[in-house]
Amino acid sequence: MAKASAKKPDKKGDRLIAQNRRAAYEFELGKSFEAGLVLVGSEARALREGPGDISEAWVEVQRGEAFVRGMRVGALPHSFLGHEEKRSRKLLLHRAQIDELQGAQDRDRMTLVVTKLYFKEGRVKIELRVAKGKKLFDKRRTLRQKDADKEGRTAIRQGKRG
Question: What's the pTM value of the predicted model, to 2 decimals?
Fold first, then answer.
């Protein structure tokens, strides 16, 4: 999905709320899953009015249920009954998906990282990815590759003009 079109709502009301760009730097990202969130009313309204924070969010599978932890949804200042900003929220996934996530978490020692928070057909969804933490030298390699790609694009752009 293109960056510019991700923020614009389409005819169904789909729009990006928050994206964890740092996840690609910190982790080697694997398979992705889409999950619904169990929210209270004030949380859904708060996400419509302002962004949520998923920079520290991860998913944990316990007793056959998946929960997102570390995700912050700001409280509404005019709300009579509010909510806790950083509470655990249950994820809505199929049993086979939960079993697959549990296996990746236990057997493969993988981390489950939240990469996107968005509206899809009026419902709040998250994209979570199975990830493995990068070592420092892997992060340096990623930065070198990114700089080389940027220099290449700049050289091509200047070559066309000159």
Answer: 0.75
Average pLDDT, the chain: 86
Q: How many Å apart are CA 128 and CA 113, to the nearest integer?
A: 5
E-strand ranges in the chain read 15-19, 27-37, 58-62, 65-69, 89-92, 111-120, 123-133
> Given 3-state DSSP classes, what are the helix, strand and coil percentages for the chain, each rounded to the nearest 5?
35, 35, 35
Which residues contact residue 20 at a Cβ distance below 8 angstroms, ignoring those fewer than 6 apart?
A: 54, 55, 57, 113, 114, 115, 116
The domains found in the chain, sorted by start residue, are 16-134 (2.40.280.10)
Smallest CA-to-CA distance from 113 within 63, 60, 47, 64 is with 60
Give Cβ neighbours of residue 153 (< 8 Å, ≥ 6 apart): none
pLDDT at 25 exceeding the cut of 60 = yes
